[in-house]
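> call design_seq(struct)
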């Protein structure tokens, strides 16, 4: 993501409503955007083409095969909270 409305490859979208003037909305929007960029970050939970785990194969040439994702999976999380995220690979039985 690039352009004047992006910062560090991220774009935050917000709507401000209910203030008395355009100036008040602009100031509140600026404060909220600053807060969002300072307190949240994009993290990659799974990288495209990189194995995440292995799953068993029934009657295959190998007992297990690696699995991953076709496209990287990114999440926006509160800064420093990646260690609290738990991703699990589940294969159909």
């Amino acid at each position: 993501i690039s352009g004047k409305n992006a910062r560090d490859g991220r774009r935050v979208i917000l709507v401000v409503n209910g203030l008395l003037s355009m100036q008040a909305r602009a100031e509140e929007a600026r404060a909220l955007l600053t807060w969002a960029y300072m307190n949240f970050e994009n993290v990659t939970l799974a990288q495209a083409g990189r194995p995440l785990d292995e799953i068993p194969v029934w009657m295959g040439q190998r007992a297990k095969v690696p699995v991953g994702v076709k496209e990287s999976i990114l999440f926006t999380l509160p800064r420093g909270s990646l260690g609290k995220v738990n991703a699990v690979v589940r294969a159909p039985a």
